[in-house]
Amino acid sequence: SASADPAERPLIAQFRAATKRYGDVLAADALDFGIGSGEFLSFLGPSGCGKTTALRMLAGFETPTSGDIYLDGERVTEVPAYLRPVNMVFQHYALFPHLTVADNIGYGLMQRRPRPARAEVARKVDRALEMVRLSGFGPRRIWEMSGGQQQRVALARAIVNEPKILLLDEPLAALDRKLRREMQIELQTLQRQLGITFVLVTHDQEEALSMSDRICIMRAGRIVQSGSPNALYDHPINRYVADFVGKSNFLNGRLASLSGKNGQVETASGQRFTGRMHTELAQGTPVSLSIRPEQIGLAHMAQDGALPVTVINRIFLGEHTEYLVRHAVLGDLLVLVARQAEANEGSFAPGDAAHVHWAPQAALILPED
Ligand code: ATP
């Protein structure tokens, strides 16, 4: 199987200073990075940041304005989509509703010249159906399939000719939440089984976090940071990434003092908080102190260094309870309390007075950009 560290894998795809302009819009700004063979990579970012453009340049649906695309070691910048060893799964599956499931999946194979033997096509279609757990559904019509099943047919069609890369453009967007979660697990399992490189575009951070080996966080045509879901969550390079990967609380201020990896943030109201720094920052820099909701403790009793707050809202989430609490000066904070911790401390109701505290090493000092 592929190496866990993407950096150690042979590259299946490369962007080399790949830029795409649409008039004045810089949709991709000198993208320069590689995708490891067998990797599950996601492009994550808000609408319009250039995710789809990056994917479409890999697919061959867009030609870069400047720069190059390499696939499997070959320059393919002007090579049309149908000659590239890639397939794409679209948000709207683009299936032929009047054809059977099997005919939809085998359609591309039957277009090949010379046309492969029917038995050979049938064998590949059956294998693809098995991979997406739809064995026996071949004779059905598309309109007889549920949304989730249609999604799997689209996947089967995309893997039937064994592409080197499968490109997925918001493939689960049309599904309801529960089905999405199930399909996320299935997609990940399928990718592991096939060993094919998957490149996913999504604006859903949960989706990217749960499936990817590596995530590229994009903004305005550029990659702000790329790394494993864990690395991005624990070591975001700036506030933008911390905000996009997981939830966080941000206290704005400036870097008042620093010593080694620790610093002190002074808020506008003059309060000082200690935090850790992963990047070198100069004293006086505008920064945010980022504290993840699960790093904050909520208590009834005051203790050293704790901040007095009022409970505003409580949402029971099963294993966790999410509280919104308000500090008179610092504003609102999100606190995630584990079931066991809540059992120990007792729960809180809206209107209750409470105290929040966190360990200084759990707070990160981040620049804006
Ligand atoms: P979304 O999540 O909304 O799909 P995205 O991150 O995939 O967004 P892109 O579709 O890559 O973003 O678009 C990047 C930028 O390029 C946007 O500003 C968009 O308006 C612009 N753009 C994309 N395609 C075209 C086009 N064919 N013509 C003109 N502008 C385009």
UniProtKB/TrEMBL annotation:
This enzyme's EC code(s): 7.6.2.11
The reaction(s) this protein catalyses: ATP + H2O + polyamine-[polyamine-binding protein]Side 1 = ADP + phosphate + polyamineSide 2 + [polyamine-binding protein]Side 1
SUPFAM superfamilies according to UniProt: MOP-like, P-loop containing nucleoside triphosphate hydrolases
Keywords for this protein: ATP-binding, Cell membrane, Membrane, Nucleotide-binding, Translocase, Transport
Family assignment from sequence similarity: Belongs to the ABC transporter superfamily. Spermidine/putrescine importer (TC 3.A.1.11.1) family.
Entry protein name: Spermidine/putrescine import ATP-binding protein PotA
Pfam families reported in the protein's UniProt record: ABC_tran, TOBE_2
One term of GO molecular function: ATP binding
PANTHER family: SPERMIDINE/PUTRESCINE IMPORT ATP-BINDING PROTEIN POTA (PTHR42781), SPERMIDINE_PUTRESCINE IMPORT ATP-BINDING PROTEIN POTA (PTHR42781:SF4)
PROSITE patterns to which the protein is assigned, alphabetical: ABC_TRANSPORTER_1, ABC_TRANSPORTER_2
Enzyme class (EC, first level): translocase
Keyword ATP-binding: yes
Originating organism: Fuscovulum ytuae
Subunit annotation: The complex is composed of two ATP-binding proteins (PotA), two transmembrane proteins (PotB and PotC) and a solute-binding protein (PotD).
Free-text function comment from the UniProt entry: Part of the ABC transporter complex PotABCD involved in spermidine/putrescine import. Responsible for energy coupling to the transport system.
Location of the ABC transporter domain: 13-245
InterPro entries (alphabetical): AAA+_ATPase, ABC_SmlMolc_Importer, ABC_transporter-like_ATP-bd, ABC_transporter-like_CS, Mo/tungstate-bd_C_term_dom, P-loop_NTPase, PotA-like, Transp-assoc_OB_typ2
